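User: I'm putting together notes for a lab meeting next week and I want to include a structural view of one of the chains we've been expressing. I don't have a solved structure, so I'd like a prediction I can at least talk through. The sequence is below, exactly as it appears in our construct file.
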Amino acid sequence: MNAPGVLLDTGPLVALLSARDSHHARARQLFDECLPPLRSCEAVVAEACFLMTKVHAAGPGEVIALIRRGVVEMAMAAEQHWPNLEVLLRRYADRPVSFADACLIRCAEVHEEGRIATFDRDFSVYRWARHRKFQIL
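Assistant: Thanks for the context. Below is the predicted structure for the 137-residue chain, given as structure tokens.
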């Protein structure tokens, strides 16, 4: 069982809420293995809500319900980290780094926690605190 504080990316969040998603079983396993709250950011929530509109109309509300129930917590406000986020986006400009990815990298730095629930292979390349590898769950 993983202690609270695992970082949560968009893919597992959407896959958990969509039984038709090809990664649904893996997402359920990840959520079963991680004690809440999982840490995420507003950028991940925005991506997840957008993607869930394609699943069904109530999908965005299901994302927010997980936050309201304490399964997921907002671990960082981007407005307090603009310079750091800019550095991360420039550092990984040669990769398909998203704003959500940069926010999660920064969350790892702020909370000194590199365990992440993600399906994004780029997190095997990204480093937090300049040199620390993510532990992909």
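A couple of points you could mention at the meeting. The longest strand covers residues 38-40. The first helix runs from residue 10 to 17.

User: Perfect, that's what I needed.
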